[in-house]
């Protein structure tokens, strides 16, 4: 599609030549390009539509890449990519060998830091700004963080450190009153009350400079007035958390008005202290379906722009989990659900509506979620924390220190475990087994079917000790025979009296079964992945050849643990271990990724039969 302005923007410098009217046309073209591309490739829609004018204003006010502009999470960076020389490649968004859906320094000098997960922008900006100060340059550092990402603990750690330093640091709070799920907690309520007058900041610097120049008494008088001013503002405007931390606060500003945004950014650039600009935006701006339902249009699969998303949705493990947990909650009053700003993504929407008093969305705070669940468990409740595998990484210390060390019965429902497709390096669920299997008192299960998933949830309710992990993939199940659909602790062996065993679990076992069900090999399905019995290891010793397939990195994998157990038993056969490599998995479809690592149906068939011949 040809655009009047967008196709001619090769760098942010060209924005500075456009009039207000031309900028408004450009913003409309950007929205059209984002909607068209995301409708074909999938991606993050509503959040990107909400920051078009804000991004244009930022690139007009600053000189990137010398001035670093960091978009937290990366869900907000599509306009940034279109304005920084990537328009011609934008059609490859989230595709194999295409441009990333997140900020990626390897991709462009305009992306100063990786921001695939939320809440790290403030800390990264603090570091970059301090490095600029130490190097003696005058570059600015800007972090754009959403009100949802601001609920993450790391953001608070960064804020606490940021204002104590007199670096050229500017924070933009993109307040759309909507993170992935509805914002919760005292901070979200506080933001809606934060109000000050931008005119105040226009005269502040002039007055401060004038007073400071008065001989002898200038600086003491300035400090006295500054303290009195704070007292007056507390009475008139009420103080807010950012001023309390030491920021100059500007706003709120209309986040869709480039002129007003530019004015605020100019004032911020002239401040002598770190500044926070509070910009009010509309998530999904310019697309009626996304404006009406921004949560549903956060991360989307390909869809028809004219009619919007399909409302029925496909059945998958996330949906099956939510339905099963709702059924359990009806029977067991002590069952409670916890999520970290992912109500819809983890399938808990129905649960939240049916059992609101037993549903807890704690915001983007996985660490708190784990310890909160542990606290619930100490009082006899049965907490189920639903979390994406890649987000659980943030809660590792709490799983170890606050739950496992006390052997508390919490259940981690680990969604999107394994390869997840086009979300790219930051979101692949290939590390959870490695870090969870290292922790005592943790039992890991990986269901292959919906029936097995529901049975494991029931088992989790019935036990009263130990961290229970149920991990399942992105997408749907593959049909298996009835004997393989129900939960068990001990491995299931489909024996054909072969000298070759093929071992796997979860969705990978389903691929192995589909590939080899008619071949003369024994298929072994692991149900519980940890604490495999000595009798099972002794049985494996009898095979001349063992193949192991799993969607995880090899270091700390189940195959690594299994091979170590076999070696300890003096196993003399051949052990083939097929995993994801020890690398960050590049974006592609799930099918393309599985094919690359030899984990799809065709690859399993080829690998095993080739070796057997």
How would you characterize this protein structure?
It is a single chain. The chain has 613 residues and is α/β, with parallel strands linked by helices. The protein has 4 domains: 19-196 and 246-300, Rossmann fold (3-Layer(aba) Sandwich); 198-236, no CATH class; 317-471, Thiamin diphosphate (ThDP)-binding fold, Pyr/PP domains (Rossmann fold, 3-Layer(aba) Sandwich); 488-612, Rossmann fold (3-Layer(aba) Sandwich). The protein is 39% helix and 14% strand. The strands form 4 sheets. It has a 6-stranded parallel beta sheet, sandwiched between helices. Strands 2-3-4-6-5 form a 5-stranded parallel beta sheet, sandwiched between helices. The longest helix has 22 residues, at 20-41. Mean pLDDT is 90; it is low at 191-197.
Write down the CATH topology of the largest domain.
Rossmann fold
Indicate the overall shape: globular
CATH superfamily of the largest domain: Thiamin diphosphate (ThDP)-binding fold, Pyr/PP domains
* Overall CATH architecture of the largest domain: 3-Layer(aba) Sandwich
Number of strands: 18
Strand order of the largest sheet: 9-8-10-11-13-12
Q: Tally the helices: what do you get?
A: 24
């Amino acid at each position: 599609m040809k655009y009047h302005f967008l196709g001619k923007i090769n760098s942010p410098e060209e924005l500075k030549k456009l009039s207000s009217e031309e900028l408004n046309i450009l913003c409309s073209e950007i929205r059209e390009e984002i909607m068209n591309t995301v409708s074909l490739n999938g991606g993050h829609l509503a959040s990107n539509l909400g920051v078009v004018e804000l991004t244009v204003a930022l690139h007009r006010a600053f000189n990137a890449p010398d001035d670093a502009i960091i978009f937290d999470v990366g869900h907000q960076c599509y306009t940034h990519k279109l304005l920084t020389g990537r328009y011609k490649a934008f059609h490859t968004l989230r595709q194999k060998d295409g441009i990333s859906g997140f900020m990626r320094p390897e991709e462009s000098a305009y992306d100063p830091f990786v921001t695939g997960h939320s809440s790290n922008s403030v800390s990264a900006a603090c570091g970059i700004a301090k490095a600029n100060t130490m190097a003696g340059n005058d570059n600015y550092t800007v972090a754009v963080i959403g009100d949802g990402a601001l609920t993450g603990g790391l953001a608070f750690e960064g804020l606490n450190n940021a204002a104590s330093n007199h670096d050229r640091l500017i924070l933009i709070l993109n307040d759309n009153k909507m993170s992935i799920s509805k914002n919760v907690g005292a901070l979200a309520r506080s933001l809606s009350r934060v109000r000050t007058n931008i005119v105040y900041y226009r005269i502040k610097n002039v007055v401060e400079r004038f007073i400071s120049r008065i001989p002898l008494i200038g600086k003491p008088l300035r400090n006295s007035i500054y303290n009195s001013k704070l007292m007056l503002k507390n009475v008139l405007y009420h103080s807010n958390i950012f001023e309390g931390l030491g920021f100059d606060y500007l706003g709120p500003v209309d986040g869709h008005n480039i002129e007003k945004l530019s004015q605020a950014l100019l004032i911020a650039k002239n401040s002598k202290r770190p500044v926070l600009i509070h910009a009010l935006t509309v998530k999904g701006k310019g697309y009626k379906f996304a404006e009406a339902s921004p949560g549903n249009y956060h991360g989307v699969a390909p869809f028809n722009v004219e009619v919007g998303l399909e409302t029925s949705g496909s059945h998958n493990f996330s949906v099956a989990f939510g339905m099963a947990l709702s059924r359990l909650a009806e029977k067991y009053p002590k069952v409670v659900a916890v999520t970290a700003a992912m109500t819809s993504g983890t399938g808990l929407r129905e649960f939240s509506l049916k059992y609101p008093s037993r549903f807890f969305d704690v915001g983007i705070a996985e660490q708190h979620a784990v310890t909160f669940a542990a606290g619930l468990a100490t009082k006899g409740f049965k907490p189920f924390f639903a979390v994406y595998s890649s987000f659980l990484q943030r809660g590792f210390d709490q799983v170890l220190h606050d739950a496992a060390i006390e052997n508390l019965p919490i259940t981690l429902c680990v969604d999107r475990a394994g390869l997840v497709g086009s979300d790219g390096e930051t979101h692949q669920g290939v590390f959870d087994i490695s870090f969870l299997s290292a922790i005592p008192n943790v039992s890991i299960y990986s269901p292959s079917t919906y029936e097995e998933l529901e049975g494991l949830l029931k088992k989790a309710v019935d036990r009263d000790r130990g961290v229970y992990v149920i991990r399942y993939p992105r997408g749907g199940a593959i049909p298996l025979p009835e004997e393989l659909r129900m939960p068990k602790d001990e491995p299931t062996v489909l024996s054909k009296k072969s000298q070759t065993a093929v071992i796997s679990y979860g969705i990978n076992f389903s691929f192995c079964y589909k590939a080899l069900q008619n071949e003369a090999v024994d298929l072994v399905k692991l149900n519980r992945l940890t604490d495999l019995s000595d009798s099972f290891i002794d049985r494996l010793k009898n095979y001349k050849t063992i193949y192991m397939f799993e969607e995880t990195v090899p270091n700390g994998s189940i195959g690594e643990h299994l091979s170590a157990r076999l070696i300890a038993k003096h196993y003399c056969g051949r052990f083939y271990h097929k995993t994801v490599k020890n690398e960050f998995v590049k974006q592609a479809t799930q099918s393309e990724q599985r094919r690359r690592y030899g984990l799809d149906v065709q690859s399993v068939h080829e690998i095993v039969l080739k070796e057997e011949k």
